């Protein structure tokens, strides 16, 4: 299929990252994801922090092309991916926080909405850029056998519950892309999804 | 005025940052901004990189309460600020990239839209989280006397033209908040605006 036209500034930025990245052990496809994350943050720490499970990239490429739904935790992630989704596979984008008018007792609203998404989209690609509570709830649902996402992108950012939720995900045998430690965020989540969409598109 | 209710997880996160930040020379108001940026990125590098001009915080507090328009470069920034804007001063949010259907020759679409915003909102608060081309165009319009923004938040991220645009802004005598170097982004821009909205609200 035709290559997605990428802006010259993006191409120049990628060339600079290629020169500065140094030695790494990523496959070419994994590196395309890492490079896009570094482009969106100007932070080379992500070279050390991003982890891909063995089948994550292959699953992403195979399922994104089918138009699989993307469940994202917050609207900033949707905003960051919707342009490229519209130019590629038109995957439905479901925003977890919008699925809950109010939070269930003792839960955040994003977590409450995520649990609702688990019921409706048990096999979607899940993308958590913001709410560690949502990632923890998703992990509990996976561990309990209620859902079997095709892929989980687990990159919430922050200081409370973030590392624990990521560790919870890492223990599950589910295709996953994780940023270890405290870093992550909506821009990182969007960059990962956008890189995977380009890889999927170019594999056709 | 009543304090804005902040989620307990946000308060806990702030307490962790307070313990880890170490010695700094920020005023309490400036630190409230820095802390919110670190919260949104988990990246303490911003402690060194954020620069406030002498009047930036005072201008932000005085103008946000009047409902001054916010011109933001891209939709991810709008998405990141609109909840708190709606809970405080209901400032109009104008997204530069949406003001241009197509890019002018040799310009990016965000830059083209930003130039249009300069005509319509010459005294707004300008927030650039993404497009260095938009920040450079804004700086040229300021230097040329066509616009006099109340405040410029100049925090584009990236590898091409970013440091040059920030340096261009730093030379202008205009109230400003800048992140030096390559880092920045939509989440950083949104965090700065949200912190300023809270400061403005609590000053009433």
TrEMBL record, chains A, B:
It comes from the Bacteria. Pathway: Cofactor biosynthesis; adenosylcobalamin biosynthesis. Keywords: Cobalamin biosynthesis, Isomerase. This is Precorrin-8X methylmutase. Residues 9-198 form the Cobalamin biosynthesis precorrin-8X methylmutase CobH/CbiC domain. GO terms for molecular function: precorrin-8X methylmutase activity. Belongs to the CobH/CbiC family. It holds the Pfam family CbiC. The keyword NAD does not apply. PANTHER family: COBALT-PRECORRIN-8 METHYLMUTASE. Its EC number is 5.4.99.61.
